């Protein structure tokens, strides 16, 4: 990977949009890192939408059609760094696609981006200056180094945190792997790998466990019927809910509630 960064050329740029704006469609020809310093934007890659907020970054791949929709409620200041003339074969590109996600800018990445000389213009600047070229190279390296690196405040990688948050906020809906992956900003297969690595579970096993934990809470703290609890936490039928609950807690929801409520 390091040989790719050191043997390639880079082009950088940044722009501030003061009002709502749509840029594109355009065909992506390079491996491009896009990041938001302030504001927010939606990047449409073919038919997929990725929403970036302040201090978010995304890696874009050649061969796709893109559109950029910038914020309507204030200015958006964003920058980009292109990796051009890179010797990326099909296998290398496929390997890099696991990083196709929205990721938070680390403090290191923000510092590097701040020092790259980029005139505020839609025109990208080729990094001919050795210092600028080294900074652009470091920006790409930092992105890949930080992508799945846990931090003290967030022991889980960003895509896992976003998938879990989306699941908690939409627990009663018929969620699919694509729904969770879209919320996380990664592919479904990559989200499965992240869950297995960091939670020792699959997204759906984790989701069922979350639903049953919520059911346990509702059984103890509310007088909702078994059927209503089942539908509220995303089960299709009370029977399916009861079967899952008994498998996890060793008793039916009815008996579990009776035992808990019967205790002083």
TrEMBL record:
SMART domains: HTH_ARAC. GO terms for molecular function: DNA-binding transcription factor activity; sequence-specific DNA binding. Residues 161-259 form the HTH araC/xylS-type domain. PROSITE patterns: HTH_ARAC_FAMILY_1, HTH_ARAC_FAMILY_2. Keywords: DNA-binding, Transcription, Transcription regulation. InterPro entries: AraC-bd, Homeodomain-like_sf, HTH-like, HTH_AraC, HTH_AraC-typ_CS, Tscrpt_reg_AraC-type_HTH. It holds the Pfam family HTH_18. PANTHER family: ARAC-FAMILY TRANSCRIPTIONAL REGULATOR, HTH-TYPE TRANSCRIPTIONAL REGULATOR EXSA. This is AraC family transcriptional regulator. It comes from Rubellicoccus peritrichatus.
């Amino acid at each position: 990977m390091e040989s790719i960064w050191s043997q390639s050329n880079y082009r950088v740029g940044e722009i501030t949009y003061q009002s709502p704006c749509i840029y594109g469609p355009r065909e992506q020809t390079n491996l491009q890192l896009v990041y938001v310093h302030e504001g927010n934007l939606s990047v449409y890659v073919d038919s997929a939408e990725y929403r970036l907020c302040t201090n978010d970054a995304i890696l874009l791949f050649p061969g796709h059609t893109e559109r950029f929709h910038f914020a309507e409620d204030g200015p958006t200041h964003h920058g980009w760094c292109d990796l051009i003339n890179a010797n990326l074969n099909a296998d290398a590109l496929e390997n890099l696609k696991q990083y196709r996600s929205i990721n938070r800018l680390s403090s290191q990445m923000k510092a590097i981006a701040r020092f790259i000389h980029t005139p505020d213009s839609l025109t990208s600047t080729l990094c001919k200056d050795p210092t600028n070229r080294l900074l652009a190279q470091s920006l790409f390296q930092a992105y890949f180094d930080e992508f799945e690196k846990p931090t003290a405040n967030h022991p889980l990688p960003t895509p896992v945190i976003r998938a879990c948050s989306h699941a908690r906020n939409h627990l009663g809906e018929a969620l699919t792997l694509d729904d969770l992956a879209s919320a996380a900003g990664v592919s479904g297969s990559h989200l499965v790998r992240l869950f297995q690595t960091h939670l020792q579970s699959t997204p759906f096993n984790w989701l069922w466990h979350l639903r049953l934990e919520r059911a346990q809470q509702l059984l103890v703290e509310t007088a909702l019927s078994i059927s209503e609890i089942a539908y509220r936490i995303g089960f299709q039928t009370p029977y399916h809910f009861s079967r899952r609950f008994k498998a996890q807690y060793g008793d039916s929801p009815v008996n579990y509630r009776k035992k808990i409520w019967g205790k002083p």
